[in-house]
Amino acid sequence: MGAAMCRVSRDDDATGGEAVAAAERPRPPQFPPFLLGALYGFWEGDIHFVPAPPRYRAVDAATVAGVVSSSQDAIGRFFRLGGNGGGLEGYEPVSSRGGLVVVRRAREGYCGGPRPRSGNAPSDLCVCDPVAGRRFVLPRPAIYDESHVLLFSGGGGVHPPRMIIHVVNLELLRHKVLQVQTFSPETNAWGPVVPTYAPLPPSSFIRPAPLVIGAAAYWLLGLAVARQHEITIWTLSPSARWTRRAVVDMAREMAKSAAPEEPPLTADDEVRLECFAERSGALLFRLYHGSLFELSLVTMEVRFIGYYSMRDSSSMCAYDYDMDAALLNQ
């Protein structure tokens, strides 16, 4: 298990308008966030959405169920139609937060859609609000965007929050350097490329997908470690120290369920970690060559989500759902 190697955080200095919005923010949250589903690049070249059975409290069902169902339908329809009007063929999801999804043009390993560019050139990027049926095409950044971070300013209580997108080039890690560039919707432009020192141990392997916690993104050597049938969970303390929290034996967890879609594990089955949803605390992983499962870090329960067929070049993005924000926007 390794520690965080780099951090990118938002600027929380509120402007005058944000301060007014903060003073008028709605009451404290009443509905805990939960996983709505996951997005991934399908092998044919488009983006697919696999909905998750909502894990809301029974007392909230009357209010939540209808909004959740309509939102899941809207997300699936948006990407089936290529972003409500086409044009998203060959894209893949790279970051999701606050109901928004950042997608980029896939570089390799897909059939159909525009021909991918060769080499490490900047990607075509687009920000989508699939529930509202909107998308916004970004200008290309100046660096190779191997990693993507979507953050919001204003302390999380300002409505609407200000979106900030960071792209990160990891190509210079052997020289202990990251390159970061930030997009601001106010100017509709990318800022300057900023080099950042990244102290790494020799021969480190870093996952391009960062872990976003609150206002910061971390590039890690590991968070949850999978070894055949076991998942080991690590937690980060305020003093930036990692501690092993739990070890989940998936063979034992699967044996508890009699559901037909969850057959017994065999020696050939291995856990593959896909992504983490910060707001809901859902860790998504694959078993059985195409079955998606969720491990809730809140309850430590495991459940089956659905089936998927993701191309090797794509990543998966969890789509958390904030019921309070959805009701506010109605």
Concise summary:
This protein has 330 residues and is mostly beta strands.
Features:
disordered N terminus, four-stranded antiparallel sheet, 330 residues, single chain, mainly beta, five-stranded antiparallel sheet
How much of the sequence is in beta strands? 35-45%
Helix content: 10-25%
Stretches where pLDDT is under 50 for at least 5 consecutive residues are 1-5, 10-28, 109-118, 155-159
The helix-and-strand class reads mainly beta
List the total number of helices.
Answer: 4
What number is the mean pLDDT? 74
Question: What is the CA-CA span between the terminal residues?
Answer: 44 Å
Domain DUF7595: 60-233
Organism: Oryza meyeriana var. granulata
Pfam families: DUF7595
Protein name: DUF7595 domain-containing protein
Describe this structure in words.
- There is one protein chain.
- The protein has about 325 residues and is mostly beta strands.
- It has one domain.
- About 10% of the residues lie in helices and about 40% in strands.
- The chain has helices spanning about 15-25, 60-80, 250-255, 325-330; strands at about 5-10, 35-40, 45-50, 90-95, 100-105, 125-130, 135-140, 145-155, 160-170, 175-185, 190, 195, 210-215, 215-220, 225, 230-235, 240-250, 270-275, 280-285, 290-295, 300-305, 315-320.
- Strands 8, 9, 10, 11 and 12 form a five-stranded antiparallel beta sheet that branches.
- β16 and β17 form a beta hairpin.
- The termini are far apart.
- Residues about 1-5, about 10-30, about 110-120 and about 155-160 have low confidence and may be disordered.
- Pfam families: DUF7595.
- InterPro entries: DUF7595.
- This is DUF7595 domain-containing protein.
